[in-house]
């Protein structure tokens, strides 16, 4: 929702800028998602109790830290509040939580340990452990980049900022590996997978990913990062669809309900977001044009015609509204609004949205006189619509996962380790209690 608001309202043409407040809201999501995966290992093998408790405490602590970064005014952000007296109280509460949590885990953690183990790295348990390490690395990278300006200022008084290139370079390899695990993990058994089993379960998802890359290359698309995102995304999406098809064949409409099946819907949403993010960043085009009424400009295959502008007076503001026709069709109206006590005009964009991409229009500079030239910003963003669809799928999948699905009746307590002699069901035979979300 925050990304959509930033895109639709602020007028800068983007939806995610690795802003400190954006990062602060992202961090608890990372640790909570890691917990949702690792708790399934605890349910199945009785392992990771201390780790899971640590993830829960980290999620709560990062929520308090995010509130501090947002409400204290210590970091520059368009989303942050101005400096507030509540800041010291929040950082004190955060420190108290962290110190208490670490102390209790160090003191009583041994009582939570269990003798369970993962049978093989090539198993669902091994994939979940790798998943958790990657989520932890992701959270550490984002946290370091977010708080580093505070650390630098405290040490030498120099005010710094960490920009998008750092986050993009550091998180991209982690994100690609997570997409790969998202495809592979649901197909793995809890014990070591054989080569024949992997070929049977992953062959056509792997072909889907490979063919996606081939088609994009033949269509003239270049760039290692976006091609990897599309290929791995297709691999993960095909694997999730395969699981859902198998579930619906066994259970009908209930194949979409339950923690495992809802998790597959969430995976599809994450894939859409990852692919749309990669496409809009790698294949987007942005340019400003100085146009007089009736003059046209071309960008990335789109024809933009400036028709003129008009000034509209409101009780609380004065607006300059431009009229811009896109590709010979509908007329759009980007505007600049001047409020009485504001020193700078505030823009509002106008967006032409299609499944293939958006044409994002802004009025950068209004005409100085009637019939004069205006500066129109044109931003062509591929596949942005699928970001919002992906977010909706995540919400739907989460709701489906909250309803009870078909479950295996446990013969032991949920947290007790399962002995090696127990055969246990395979993913193809019964819908598992949990699949990565």
Write up what this structure looks like:
By secondary structure, this protein is an alpha+beta fold. The protein folds into two domains: 301 residues, no CATH class; 98 residues, no CATH class. It is 53% helix and 15% strand. The strands form two sheets. Strands 2, 3, 4, 5, 6 and 7 form a six-stranded antiparallel sheet that branches. A hairpin with an 8-residue loop joins strand 9 and strand 10. Helix 2 runs antiparallel to helix 5 and helix 3 packs antiparallel against helix 4. The protein is globular and about 80 Å long. The C terminus is likely disordered.
Number of E-state strands: 10
Shape type: globular
Biggest sheet, open or closed, and with what strands and sense? Answer: 6 strands, antiparallel
Strand content: 5-15%
Q: How many helices does DSSP assign?
A: 10
Distance between the termini: 20 Å
Count of the separate structural domains: 2
Low-confidence stretches: 409-437
Mean pLDDT: 86
Tell me the helix content: 40-55%
Structural class: alpha+beta
User: What is the H/E order?
Assistant: HHHHHHHHHEEEEEEEEEEH
Radius of gyration over C-alpha positions, nearest whole angstrom: 25 Å
């Amino acid at each position: 929702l925050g990304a959509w608001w930033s895109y639709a309202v602020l007028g800068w043409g983007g939806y995610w800028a690795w802003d400190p407040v954006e990062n602060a809201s992202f961090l608890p999501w990372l640790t909570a998602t890691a917990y949702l995966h690792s708790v399934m290992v605890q349910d199945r093998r009785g392992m990771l109790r201390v780790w899971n408790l640590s993830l829960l405490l980290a999620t709560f602590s990062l929520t308090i830290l995010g509130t501090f970064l947002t409400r204290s005014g210590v970091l520059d952000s368009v989303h942050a509040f101005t400096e507030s007296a509540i800041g010291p109280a929040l950082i004190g509460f955060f420190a108290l939580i962290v110190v208490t949590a670490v102390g209790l885990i160090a003191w009583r953690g041994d009582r939570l340990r269990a003798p369970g183990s993962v049978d093989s790295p090539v198993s669902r348990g091994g994939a979940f452990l790798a998943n958790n390490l990657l989520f932890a690395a992701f959270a550490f990278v984002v946290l370091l980049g977010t708080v580093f300006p505070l650390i630098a200022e405290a040490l030498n008084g120099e005010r710094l900022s960490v920009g998008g290139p750092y986050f993009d370079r550091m998180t991209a390899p982690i994100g690609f590996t997570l997409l790969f695990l998202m495809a592979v993990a649901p197909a793995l058994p809890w014990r070591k997978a054989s080569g024949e089993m992997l070929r049977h379960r992953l062959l056509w998802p792997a072909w889907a990913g490979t063919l996606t890359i081939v088609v994009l290359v033949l269509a003239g698309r270049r760039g290692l990062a976006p091609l990897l995102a599309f290929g791995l995304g297709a691999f993960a999406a095909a694997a999730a669809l395969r699981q859902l098809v198998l579930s619906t064949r066994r259970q009908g409409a209930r194949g979409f309900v339950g923690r495992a099946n809802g998790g597959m819907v969430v995976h599809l949403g994450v894939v859409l977001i990852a692919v749309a993010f990669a496409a809009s960043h790698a294949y987007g085009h942005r340019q400003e044009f100085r146009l007089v009424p009736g003059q046209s400009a071309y960008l990335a295959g789109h024809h933009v015609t400036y028709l003129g502008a008009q000034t509209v007076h409101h009780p609380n503001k004065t607006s300059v509204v431009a009229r811009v026709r896109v590709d010979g069709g509908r007329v759009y109206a980007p505007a600049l609004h001047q409020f009485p006590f504001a020193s700078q005009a505030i823009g509002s964009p106008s967006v032409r949205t299609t499944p293939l991409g958006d044409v994002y229009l802004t009025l950068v500079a209004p005409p100085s006189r009637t019939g004069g030239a205006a500066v129109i910003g044109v931003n062509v963003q591929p596949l942005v619509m699928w970001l919002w669809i992906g977010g909706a799928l995540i919400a739907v999948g989460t709701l489906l996962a909250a309803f009870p699905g078909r479950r295996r009746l446990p013969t032991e307590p949920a947290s007790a380790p399962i002995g090696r002699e127990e055969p246990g069901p395979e993913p193809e035979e019964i819908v598992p209690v949990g699949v990565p979300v």
